[in-house]
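Support request from a user on the community tier.

User writes: "When I paste my structure tokens into the form, the page sometimes reloads and wipes my input. The last time it worked, I copied everything first. Here is what I submitted, just in case something in the input itself triggers the reload:"
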């Protein structure tokens, strides 16, 4: 039960429109192609679809604040800190400070992209970062991407839990 371990729980959730700028199909190009030095991805976390939702085992009723990310077509960043919430005009750092959160637990996807970028930004902003290895997964477009990302997070002083 999350509530016994944490005073406040803030989560982020990717919530993309169907024509999001990160999607290859938006530009009619192949998935994983580069366009303007950015990888264009398969559709993922599309609003109102099963693949944007959390696992049913995740107790959302214990969450104090859920922040939807990348809800606008032209807004994208690998880091959870790289955007501003449309409804409040606040960024993730401001939201976390409002809830007196100093420790970030990183789980889910994609280890070498979103997880790594979020960990880097969090550490720059003086958050303690804990990465849960068994709850993350890599895209692994290149050999050893997952291991390289974990090693980089360790060098940045993120705590890595198995």
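"...and here is what came back when it finally went through:"
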């Amino acid at each position: 039960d999350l509530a016994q371990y944490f005073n406040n729980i803030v989560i982020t959730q990717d919530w993309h429109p169907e024509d999001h700028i990160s999607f290859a199909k938006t530009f009619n190009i192949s998935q994983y192609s580069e366009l303007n030095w950015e990888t264009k991805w398969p559709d993922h976390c599309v609003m109102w679809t099963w693949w944007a939702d959390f696992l049913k085992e995740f107790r959302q009723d214990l969450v104090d604040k859920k922040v939807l990310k990348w809800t606008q077509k032209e807004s994208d960043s690998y880091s959870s800190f790289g955007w501003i919430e449309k409804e409040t005009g606040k960024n993730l750092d401001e939201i976390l400070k409002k809830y007196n959160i100093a420790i970030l637990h990183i789980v889910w996807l994609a280890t070498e992209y979103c997880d790594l970028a979020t960990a880097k930004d969090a550490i720059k902003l003086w958050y303690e970062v804990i990465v849960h290895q068994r709850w993350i997964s890599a895209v692994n477009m290149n050999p050893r991407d997952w291991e390289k990302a974990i090693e980089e997070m360790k060098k940045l002083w993120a705590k890595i839990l198995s």
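Agent notes: The reload is a front-end session timeout and is unrelated to the input. The CA atoms of residues 82 and 136 lie 20 Å apart. The beta strands are 10-14, 34-35, 38-39, 65-69, 103-109, 128-137, 159-161. Escalated to web team.
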